[in-house]
Structures are given as C-alpha cells and as structure tokens.
From TrEMBL:
Protein name, entry field: Lipoyl-binding domain-containing protein
Gene3D superfamilies: 2.40.50.100
Top-level division of the source organism's lineage: Eukaryota
InterPro entries with a match to the protein in the record: Biotin_lipoyl (IPR000089), Single_hybrid_motif (IPR011053)
Lipoyl-binding domain sequence ranges: 81-118
Cross-referenced Pfam families: Biotin_lipoyl
Amino acid sequence: EPATFSMAAYDAFVDAHADEVRAFEARQAAAAEREAAREAALLLRWQKRKAAAAAGELDPAAYALDDAAASEHAVKSSLAATVWKVRCAPGDVVASADDVLVVLEAMKTEVNVPAGAENVGRTVRGFGRDVRPGGLVQAGDVLVVLD
C-alpha cells in the first residue's frame, strides 16, 4: 500500500524520544566502561596465574584446609573425579555465579565446577584435601573453601 514519508513527523518523533535515547546511550556507555574494566581485571588475573603456574608458584596443596574449617562456605564435588585444573587462587573474589573454580575430569569428560549464586562476593580462602591437578576427589568432598 502506498505511503508518504513525512520528514516533519519523523523529526517530531525523534525529538519526542531524544531524552530517552540520551539516557539509554549514557547507561550503555557506563556499562561498556564497567565491562572494559572487568575484562582488563580478568586479563590481568589470568596473566598473573599463567605466570605463577609457569614459575611453579601456585600450589593449591599449600592452601589445603581440614574439613572442619571447610564446612561453613564450601564448594563441593558432585562426583568422584580427578582434579583437572584449579582455576582460582586464595584471595580471589567470586565475581559471578558462573565463575569456574575447579575443573574435574571423569571418564574423559571435563566437568566445570561453578561458584554458585550463594558464593558471589565471597573470597577464596583455601582448598580441600587433595585438590590439586591430578588429585582424586569423591562426591561430597570439599573443593574450595570461601570466606
């Protein structure tokens, strides 16, 4: 069906929504800045861990805590498996529920162990017994202890 485009009506429409568009663009710019800062922090954290692992400095076994100390805020294994990777270090702060703290391996399958929503904002204090690459854990064993 034929229609006529009215530039005056379009300009009036744009002007009517200009404040809303500016507010959205300001929120978008602020969110982009926050995300860029978060990505920079994550990159720095990754680079530090990579350097520590290459230098052999990060040994999760050195931060092993007994089960009694680990009982209050802990991330536990959901299955019997081998610890494939420890992706956190003491002092790290859990930024999101999806942060992977430990990667387990069972039957040639990697299983990511996320922090969980209840642990967002908590700090990694240490690890359960035998939580190190190659260590064996059973279902219910403490993997990571959080403050």
